[in-house]
Design a protein that fits this description.
By secondary structure, the chain is mainly beta. Keywords: Disulfide bond, Glycoprotein, Membrane, Repeat, Signal, Sushi.
């Protein structure tokens, strides 16, 4: 309150400027007032002891405050007013009138008590407008003497909007007394006038509204032997630089006026155009030593060299030569090649750059990878060819019934001969490529045969053919690969301890073991059944059954059901004719059935035929005899 009052007095009556007020108030910000003692029968409460802090006094019950209720730490480091007293309430007297912020009353400041019906008037400080009832009166009410009123508020006076500026912004949205607003210009503009204004007690803003003007850079100077072109020197203006003929600009070609009133970048200058030394010229020399604008130098190669590129260059206005330095390329020396020679050139001869030559190898030698022709490249051959022993152009001849394996056909590589199953190699199995030819002829693959396996006691060995089986005799010599034999025992003998047959594999019977024919009463496994079992076993191993004659197409076949037969140990079954099909007993199969002693066949004829899954006349069975045969007397 005191600070605002002082500020108002300084502005209204002292004629101080706002910046002077700021300097004045800053001098008092760090002043320190003494500590205040509490009055008798009362207390004091302070907000601090610095400039502008306040002290508020109160009295105990039954006492009233005589003097100022509030004191302020002033600029002289002293508290305003005098120390108040707490006096005993006697009679009908009012204490000093209440304080109203930003206002003063009409009573003397040194008067401590007021009789009943005393009245005082309140007036707001300059810069504040009153609102409410401005009178206070001392009255007795319910046995208590007190002030009634005022109902007053002193509101700071409004100065209205202070105004906006073009190309700038305003800071501050409060427009009442003691308020301050600040103006700032946009980038590239500078403020003209004071950048701040205060709302004064008379409702007017201090000073004048400032304005923002574009910044101005100094006029750019012309570079020596050049000129600066511009139309304006205000913010964002551009200056362009150029040089006279024969000079080049060093530095930026354009500069812009920035917000700090400076031209950005460095100031360029004009330098006489001179081309640099063309550089090293290998295997040659220059004619002409002037490197100024328009000068020309000529290029010359040493004797025996070949020039590649322009023969002269001129210094241009850009400071560069019109052509790059050419190349003087060296010739190549023809090398010596073992087992070969070059066409039209002898070893040691000089061949100009870029010339190609061919190589020819001696008989039984080849150029490696066909690397011909070769080319001279600035004294170095693109590659040096080599004559190596010739490779074989083709694989060795494949033997009949065999194959040849040769991963590579280069000199020294080998080829391997192999025969198909059932054939034996006659001759060397390996040959080698030697200077383009195979050292050995191809061998022969001869068919090999299995020997006679021997006789089967109490049985016979049958050789399986395309039309059936027949007895295998020692005079049958040429039994080829994959042919089969079957073992069959005589009547009342059974195969034991061995396989039912064997297959010819690479001249040997597999398996090698032969079975035995042991006498017994078990039914004989006929040749046809054993043949089928062996055939099925062969098919499982991946073999194929070959058929002779024409093949009936599958679309003309009508599938027919096979028959089943319940065989017993006292039954002997012989397959007379096998039907067509993959089943054990397909449709059309004819069998002969014989029962052992003590059993009799249930069909009159020993022959039964499978017809569409049924035996005709019926399924054969060996049944026990109803009467035992009589024995002869000894």
């Amino acid at each position: 309150i005191i600070f605002s009052f002082i500020l108002n007095i300084l502005v209204i009556y002292g004629g101080c400027r706002a910046d002077e007020i700021k300097h004045f108030t800053n001098d008092f910000l760090y002043l320190h007032c003494d500590e205040l003692p509490s009055p008798d029968n009362g207390a004091v409460k302070v907000t601090g002891e610095m400039f502008g802090d306040t002290a508020t006094y109160t009295c105990r019950e039954g006492y009233w405050l005589s003097g100022n209720r509030e004191r302020v730490c002033q600029g002289g480091a002293t508290w305003s007013g005098k120390q108040p007293e707490c006096r005993l309430k006697i009679g009908s007297m009012c204490m000093p009138p209440p304080q109203v912020p930003y206002a003063r009353h009409s009573a003397p400041l040194d008067k401590d008590d007021f009789p009943t019906d005393s009245m005082v008037q309140y007036t707001c400080f300059p810069g504040y407008n009153p609102k409410g009832f401005r009178t206070a009166k001392c009255l007795q009410y319910n046995g208590t003497v007190q002030w009634f009123g005022p109902d007053l508020r002193c509101l700071p006076r409004s100065c209205g909007p202070p105004g906006d500026i073009e190309h700038g912004v305003r800071e501050g949205d409060t427009f009442t007394f003691t308020s301050r607003v600040t103006y700032n210009c946009s980038e590239g503009f500078e403020i003209i006038g004071r950048p701040y204004r205060y709302c004064q007690s008379n409702g007017q803003w201090s000073g004048q509204l400032p304005e923002c003007r574009p910044v101005q850079c100094d006029k750019p100077a012309n570079p020596q032997n050049g000129r600066a072109h511009y139309t304006s020197v205000s913010y964002n203006s551009v200056v362009n630089y150029e040089c006279r003929f024969g000079f080049k600009l060093v530095g930026p070609a354009t500069r812009t006026c920035n917000a700090s009133k400076q031209w950005d970048g460095i100031e360029p200058f004009c330098e006489e155009i001179k081309c640099e030394d063309p550089g090293p010229f290998y295997n040659g020399y220059f004619e002409g030593r002037s490197y100024s604008l328009g000068s020309t130098v000529f290029f010359r190669c040493f004797e025996g060299m070949k020039m590649e590129g322009a023969r002269s260059a001129t210094c241009l206005q850009s400071g560069n030569w019109s052509n790059p330095i050419p190349k003087c390329l060296s010739p190549c020396i023809v090398p010596e090649i073992e087992q070969g020679n070059f066409t039209d050139y002898s070893p040691g001869a000089r061949v100009p750059h870029g010339v190609e030559i061919n190589i020819t190898c001696e008989p039984r030698y080849d150029v490696i990878y066909n690397a011909t022709p070769i080319s001279c490249n600035n004294g170095t051959w693109t590659h040096v060819p080599t004559c190596v022993p010739a490779r074989c152009r083709q694989l060795p001849e494949k033997p009949k019934y065999g194959i040849v394996i040769a991963p590579k056909t280069d000199h020294g590589m080998k080829a391997l001969f192999l025969c198909r199953d059932g054939y034996q190699l006659s001759g060397p199995n390996v040959t080698e490529c030697h200077y383009g030819e195979w050292t050995l002829p191809s061998p022969v693959c001869n068919e090999i045969y299995c020997p006679f396996p021997g006789f089967l006691p109490n049985g016979r060995v049958l050789l399986v053919g395309y039309m059936g089986m027949y007895d295998y005799r020692p005079y049958v010599r040429k039994v080829t690969n994959n042919r089969q034999i079957m073992y069959e025992c005589h009547r009342h003998y059974t195969l034991m301890d061995g396989p039912p047959g064997a297959t010819c594999v690479d001249g040997q019977w597999s398996p090698k073991q032969m079975p035995r024919c042991v006498r017994g009463s078990h039914p004989v496994l006929t040749t046809q059944r054993r043949r089928r079992e062996l055939l099925r076993d062969r098919l499982r191993r991946g073999g194929k059954r070959r058929r002779r004659g024409k093949t009936t197409r599958s679309k003309d076949r009508i599938p027919k059901e096979a028959c089943a037969l319940r065989e017993t140990d006292w039954m002997e079954v012989e397959i007379v004719r096998m039907g067509r099909g993959n089943e054990s007993l397909p449709h059309g199969t004819v069998i002969n059935v014989t029962c052992t002693a003590g059993y009799q066949l249930n069909i009159g004829n020993r022959t039964a035929k499978c017809v569409r899954g049924r035996w005709k006349p019926k399924e054969p069975e060996c049944q026990t005899c109803t009467a035992l045969p009589s024995a002869n007397n000894p």
